[in-house]
What does this fold into?
Amino acid sequence: MKYIRLSVVLYLCLFVSCGNAQNKKASEYDWDAKMKNMGLIDVCFWEPSIQSYLVYKTGDNFTGKPLYNSKLTKAWLHPRAAKMLIRAQDLLKKERPGLSLLIYDAARPIEVQQKMGEWAKKTNNEYYVADPAKGGGLHNYGMAVDLTLVDENGEWLPMGTPFDFFGPESHTDKEEDLLKKRRISPSEYKNRKFLRRIMEEAGFKPIVSEWWHFNACSREEAREKYLLIDR
It folds into this structure.
């Protein structure tokens, strides 16, 4: 009888645990639906050759933990930025057919930016994280994209640092000096310049502190013309 009672207790615990997990998932805010309703575009649907690995759904980012819930599953962009990115992929494929763009991050809810801001303050890394109290950054309007290049085998081309590396090795204005000091290799330098050229030809602007980040417009224009991604 003791074994029967124990089995019943274990079953009930498992049932409650599964129920709580399902309720939590059901209660998660549906960011995919929100962004679709805002008119943002799932860019990988419109151009399937563009790949994505949404880093903030994983712990493989600067905070060390997932920041996106289970209902943010796609690389969303404002239509203007999405068209520019598809243009960049076309340019890339014409020049290097074996390569593809791979998106690390695209449209980002402002509440996620707030979590990033809290982490940045605790670690003295505010320089690398747009201040959510000042409207956040262009990701929060669907007007910025983080990305890299991958080959036909899905291997990421070496860029000198991983994504979300906070340090001078990630800076785009120090690459010649980094190359001279052998802190990045000639091939990494070449890959960065190539990615930047393709993105700039499509209309994007790079930033100084992150080789992977590209803006589709200015922050002032985004705040004037586009909607902040919020609930």
